[in-house]
UniProtKB/TrEMBL annotation:
Pfam families: His_kinase
Membrane-spanning segments: 12-34
Organism whose genome encodes this protein: Paenibacillus elgii
Record InterPro entries: Bact_2-comp_sensor_kinase (IPR050640), HATPase_C_sf (IPR036890), Sig_transdc_His_kin_internal (IPR010559)
Swiss-Prot/TrEMBL keywords: ATP-binding, Cell membrane, Coiled coil, Kinase, Membrane, Nucleotide-binding, Phosphoprotein, Transferase, Transmembrane, Transmembrane helix, Two-component regulatory system
One Gene Ontology term of the molecular function aspect: ATP binding
Localization per record: Cell membrane
Protein name, per record: Signal transduction histidine kinase internal region domain-containing protein
Length: 611
């Protein structure tokens, strides 16, 4: 068997085994956790349903019992009910009073089906769906089993199981709550108030509780309701002996609610007809009824089985995808390693980039296949070094051009001559001011030109230059400066404003004074701009064409003849372009009438134009 030596094979086997183990552990743990949670949630769901149905039954029964309680405690109703009517007029008036009193007690709409108030001597009052006052046979009333049970409760409530109503021919199945009372408190109870409710109301409560919204077919959940004696309340099955199989499973349990599973130890063999069924029960303290929800365990745990199948499929798919990705990942990782060691050994600044090595035999270590990527890296390194050196050369060249264009010896000689004349005339304050301005200018241009300055600093340098020029051209020129304060902190290259002003004195003012220079600036939505204008002779057309040609056809760093007369303007354009790139603009034009203007600025600047 051939020994595994390649990095690709080792990476594939190690990562595939590790990821497979992690996926198996994760999928198994996740399934066990979620399936347990789903099983618990499913069991709790039917338990909650049983509690919900029991609570809804209690709400309905309590409402019926409350009506019965208000009736037997109404003094007016008791007076009218026990009043003897020996004439049709009294009987009619008494019936009207009873109807009005019952209406005031129950309100509208009716929350019940029918109210029956009767005495054991046969008097019967019906209110609700029908209103009637009639006299029945005492035997008809006393023969009802539930009537005797109600009388024995001595005024306490009695919940009567569903049955066909006893007092009319509608064959309506009703469920009722009754209480016994007497004419005088303390005497034997001989009268009963019965509040009936249509049994379909309780059926609807059950159906709405177990129906799942959005599904046409309801869950296979069976609902049974037993009274405290085990008689079947729901579903109603007249004449059919109730199935007490489920009742036998829960009747001896002490807890008022819970879940009964087939494997519970107290379930006796043979008690449940289907051992795979789960029973959730809830016993009401108010009515004594027990609500049972029965559902087969396979159906209840169907979501768990569906989840298990999905997890298995997802796990298999994840393993396959992992194998494929691991294979290609290991293969891709080893390709760049082919000849890196030899390339590094041959690498030097003089041999950038190194020569590409031939592909090694397939049985060698794949680390050497990185040579191709390494060669590309060296090429990029060479380009980066070239760009860095070129940028630095351009920076030095631009600075040298700026020094040459901005501080020529004639200006310095003239300034020193004026200072000496001032000294002879004993103008000390003016000499101090001129020396301060001149030293400030020299200090400004002596600082590293690659460091940007603020517009405020650049403007201050220009003002010093103008102050020195005023000592030379006394009362011959004026200058107005309108730069908004918001431009003071804009970052700009050094010496972009004063050379333009100096150009006015050198070329524009070849005419008799007075001369005027105007410097205006503004912030735009997408940048800033400064305009320097004068009232001089303007640009000659050939000169303007020559300058614009130089601007359009030369790149920063390209050497320009030192004898080019407008090298200062060209220098400004180059440094703006180096600093701002293609966002910088530089415009020269003649004004209508006399004079020229130079416009510099930035359109759509970089994110941070402030110092």
């Amino acid at each position: 068997m051939k020994q595994i030596r390649t990095v690709q094979s080792k990476l594939f086997l190690v990562y595939a085994s590790l990821i497979t183990l992690l996926i198996v552990i994760f999928v198994t743990s996740f399934y066990l956790y979620v399936s347990s949670a789903l099983e618990k949630k499913a069991s709790e769901s039917i338990h909650q349903l049983s509690l919900n149905i029991s609570d809804k039954f209690d709400v309905e029964l309590k409402g019926m019992d409350a009506i019965a309680g208000r009736i037997i405690t109404s003094d007016n109703l008791r007076t009218y009910f026990f009043e003897s009517t020996d004439s049709p007029y009294k009987e009619l008036n008494n019936g009207r009073n009873i109807s009005n009193t019952l209406f005031s007690i129950t309100g509208y709409p009716f929350e019940f089906y029918q109210i029956n108030i009767f005495r054991t001597n046969g008097k019967l009052i019906q209110f609700g769906k029908n209103f009637n006052i009639s006299q029945l046979s005492p035997y008809t009333i006393q023969s009802q089993v539930w009537v005797n049970l109600t009388l024995k409760e001595d005024g306490r409530k009695t919940v009567i199981p569903p049955r066909i109503t006893d007092w009319d021919q509608s064959n309506t199945i009703v469920l009722s709550v009754s209480r016994a009372f007497s004419e005088v408190l303390g005497k034997q109870h001989d009268s009963i108030v019965e509040v009936q409710q249509d049994f379909s109301v309780f059926q609807n409560l059950v159906n709405r509780s177990i129906t799942i919204p959005g599904e046409e077919i309801s869950q296979p959940t069976k609902v049974y309701v037993y009274d405290k004696n085990g008689a079947l309340i729901y579903p109603f099955s007249e004449g059919i002996p109730p199935d007490q199989t489920y009742w036998n499973d829960v009747k001896g349990l002490a807890n008022p609610s819970g879940i009964v599973k087939p494997d519970d130890p107290w379930i006796m063999p043979g008690n449940s007809t289907k051992p795979s069924e789960i029973i959730a029960y809830s016993r009401s303290e108010f009515s004594g009824w027990t609500v049972l929800l029965v559902e087969s365990e396979p159906a209840l745990l169907q979501p768990v089985k569906a989840f298990r199948n999905q997890i298995v499929l997802i796990g298999i798919a994840a393993l396959l995808i992992t194998m494929i990705l691991t294979y290609y990942m290991s293969k891709g990782l080893t390709i760049p390693l082919q000849a890196i060691r030899k390339s590094i050994a041959n690498l030097s600044l003089q041999t950038l980039p190194p020569a590409t090595m031939p592909a090694p035999p397939s049985d060698l270590n794949e680390l050497e296949e990185l040579n191709a990527a390494f060669v590309q890296m060296c090429k990029r390194l060479e380009e980066s070094l070239h760009e860095a050196v070129e940028a630095r050369s351009q920076e030095i060249k631009a600075r040298m051009l700026a020094l040459q264009a901005q501080m020529n010896p004639h200006f310095l000689y003239n300034t020193l001559t004026i200072i000496s004349i001032k000294a002879e005339n004993n103008h000390q304050k003016e000499i101090v001011k001129m020396c301060s301005d001149l030293s400030g200018m020299l200090r400004y241009i002596a600082i590293d030109g690659s460091i940007p300055v603020t517009m405020e600093q650049e403007l201050d340098y220009t003002v010093k230059y103008l102050d020195l020029m005023r000592t030379r051209h006394i009362h011959q020129f004026s200058c107005s400066i309108e730069i908004p304060a918001e431009m003071n902190q804009v970052r700009v290259p050094r010496l972009i404003l004063q050379p333009i002003v100096e150009n006015c004195f050198k070329h524009a003012f070849n005419k008799r004074p007075p001369w005027h220079i105007q410097i205006t600036g503004k912030m735009c939505d997408n940048g800033w701009e400064i305009i320097v204008s004068d009232n001089g002779i303007g640009f000659d057309d050939q000169v303007l064409t020559s300058i614009l040609t130089k601007i359009n056809n030369t790149e920063p760093g390209i050497e320009v003849d030192d004898d080019f007369p407008h090298i200062g303007l060209l220098n400004i354009f180059h440094r703006l372009k180096l600093f701002y790139g293609d966002k910088a603009f530089f415009q020269l034009l003649n004004k209508t009438g006399e004079g020229a203007e130079v416009k510099i600025g930035v359109s759509d600047p970089r994110e941070n134009i402030y110092a």
